[in-house]
Every structure is written in C-alpha cells, then in structure tokens.
Amino acid sequence: MAIRPTIHVIKNVAFLGLGVMGFPMAGWLSRAGCSVTVFNRTTVKAERWCDENEGAMALTAAEAVAGAEAVFMCLGGGPVIREDVLSDSGVLRAMRSGTLLVDHTTASASLAREIASAGEECGVQCLDAPVSGGQAGAENGQLTVMVGGEPEAYERAESLIHAFAKMVRLIGPAGSGQLTKMVNQIAIAGVVQGFAEALNFAIRAGLEPEAVVDVISKGAAQSWQMDNRWETMSAGKFEFGFAVEWMRKDLRICFEESRANGAELPIAALVDQFYADVADMGGKRWDTSSLIARLNRD
Ligand SMILES: NC(=O)c1ccc[n+]([C@@H]2O[C@H](COP(=O)([O-])OP(=O)(O)OC[C@H]3O[C@@H](n4cnc5c(N)ncnc54)[C@H](OP(=O)(O)O)[C@@H]3O)[C@@H](O)[C@H]2O)c1
C-alpha cells in the first residue's frame, strides 16, 4: 500500500486587522478549529472579537505573530502594509522562518512582489490574496479569493482560506492576486454606472422599477448589481457595502498598473471622476451603487 505523505495541518494562526472584513474572517478561522490570536490597532475591536469568538488577542502585531504558523491580514491599504509589515520593526521580521503570510488587503501588485521577496529573505512564504464579496460575503463566509504566489505556499493555505470563502484560486506568481482584483474592479466600475443610468432612466420614464428589473434580469442585461442593488438604489439607500473611498483607492491602483502595462481604461477613468462627484456630495462612505445619486443632483 502506498504511504501517504504526512500533511502538516496549520493550527496556530494570527489575524491582523479586524475591520469590516477582517473581523468576520478571523471568526470563521476560529470556528474552523484554528487557534487564533488577533491584533488590531484600535484595541477595543480586538476585545469585542474575543467576546464574540474563541481566541486570544495580542497588544502588538509582533506579539500576535510570534507563535503563529500562518499569519492572515486584512488592512486598509499599501501605506499601512509598508509601515507595519515591511519596515525593520514590522510583522515580517517578527515571524518565524518556515511560516506563511496571507495578505487579504487590496494593494498594488508591485507591493505584493516586494512583500514576497522580503518574505523570502526571512524564510516566510507570502501570498497576495485580495477578496471580493463585500461585508456580507465576509460575514457569511462566502468570499471570492484571488491568489498570487508559489504553488507550495498556496497548498498550505488553501483549506484555511476556505473557512471564509466559497471560491479560492491560485492565479499565478506573486502579484497575480492583486492584478486579478484590479480586473474585478475595472469590470465592476462600468457595470455599476451602466445600471445606475438604466435604472434612473426607467424611473424618469415613469416605469415601475420592480417590474422592469423582474423582466430584464432574466435576459442579457442581468448583473449582480441589478439583482442585489436595484431596490436600495431606487430608494436612494447606500449603506450596503463597499465604500466609494475604497473604490477610488482601488481604481487608483488600476490606473497606476495600466500606465505600466499600456491598457486603456477610459470608462474606469470616467467612473472614477463620477465617484469624485459623489464624494463631493458627502458620499465618501456611501456604497458604490451611489453613482445613481449623482444623476439626481440639482
Ligand atoms: N469592505 C469591503 O466591502 C471590502 C471588499 C473587498 C475588499 N476590501 C478590502 O479589504 C481591506 C480592508 O477593508 P475593510 O472594509 O475591512 O476596512 P476597514 O473596516 O476600514 O478596516 C481597516 C483595517 O486596517 C486597520 N488600519 C488602517 N489603517 C491602519 C494603520 N495606519 N495602522 C494600523 N492599522 C490600520 C484598521 O485598524 P483600526 O480598526 O484601528 O482602524 C482596520 O483593522 C481593504 O484593503 C479593502 O479595500 C474591502
């Protein structure tokens, strides 16, 4: 009988960043049987996490990662990573050799490559693993995770990521996860604006939005935005997920990358300007479907 290789199952993990996304993601790892130590800059969130979940909290990131075989993080963006992860006193240097770092933050592909090569120097395998699916996806454990890195690192992380994801896939080497997330954001920008225009047109034409969406969502115009946002958009309610300021951060990353690879992004650039208008209307924290509000300005 063939002898199966022993698979070392990762048990001790750390989670850094208990924001809208990280808080529930860390909870899913705990419920999947991991021993989780969390760290968050604002301590009260870590205390609340410990009240609601099985696990421990640390008062510094270095303390959180000290005993971890794998470290997960979901932070605001690139500048935080540079300061808290890559610096001489940062997380990477505090991790043990042979461990794994999985970064769920949305940031640039070049930063992901920098983290991967800094990780190599420390003996830490790194994956860039941005997510899609929003707050609801994180809370329901239904995120989509796009991963960049080495296959061996991916194999170690895959089953853990499945604790909070319905879809996870290794796309290619370091940076490929972030590049895939950019593709996702470019695709979404045009779809949201297109649907905002269509719905606004329907309402101004005196049609009943529910009836219109019921019929056209069965045809070629169907989209996730249409199915999940037509009602709240019709009602002018925009508290349902990904914020305008986060979308603008993500589009900035896309524009930076497109300057390097030569891809043209005329619609994404236009929609970014529309989001700037929405932000000026006081909508920085509104969700991305708020593009329709701009069409109803006085
Ligand atoms: N929200 C979504 O729907 C969504 C969907 C897909 C992807 N994402 C991406 O996921 C990442 C996290 O998003 P989120 O919505 O969870 O954001 P969030 O709620 O604002 O949380 C951000 C996290 O980063 C920490 N942080 C921010 N600045 C920091 C600093 N200077 N030093 C240390 N920690 C800092 C925050 O700590 P404090 O608690 O102390 O502020 C918090 O833990 C972002 O890259 C975002 O683009 C979000």
* Unreliable stretches covering 5 or more consecutive residues: 1-7
What about the largest sheet?
6 strands, parallel
What global shape is seen? globular
Number of strands: 9
Q: What is the count of DSSP helices, taking H or I runs of 4+ residues?
A: 14
Report the span from N to C terminus: 76 Å
Residue fraction in strands: 5-15%
Q: Helix- and strand-based class? A: alpha/beta
In round numbers, the mean pLDDT is 95
Q: Tell me the helix content.
A: 40-55%
Q: In angstroms, what is the radius of gyration?
A: 21 Å
The SSE order reads EHEHEHEHHEHEEHEHEHHHHHH
Q: Any overview of this molecule?
A:
The chain has 298 residues and is α/β, with parallel strands linked by helices. It has helices at 22-31, 43-52, 61-65, 78-86, 91-94, 109-122, 134-140, 151-161, 176-204, 209-216, 224-234, 244-261, 266-283, 291-294; strands at residues 12-16, 35-39, 56-57, 70-73, 100-103, 125-128, 131-132, 143-148, 165-172. The strands form 2 sheets. The chain has a 6-stranded parallel beta sheet with strand order 3-2-1-4-5-6. A 3-stranded mixed beta sheet has the order 7-8-9. Helix 9 packs across helix 12, helix 9 (176-204) crosses helix 13 (266-283) and helix 12 runs antiparallel to helix 13. It is globular and about 65 Å long. It starts with 11 loop residues before the first strand and ends with a helix. Residues 1-7 have low confidence and may be disordered. NADP nicotinamide-adenine-dinucleotide phosphate binds at residues 17-22, 40-42, 45, 74-77, 80, 84, 105-106, 131-132, 134-135, 241-242, 246.
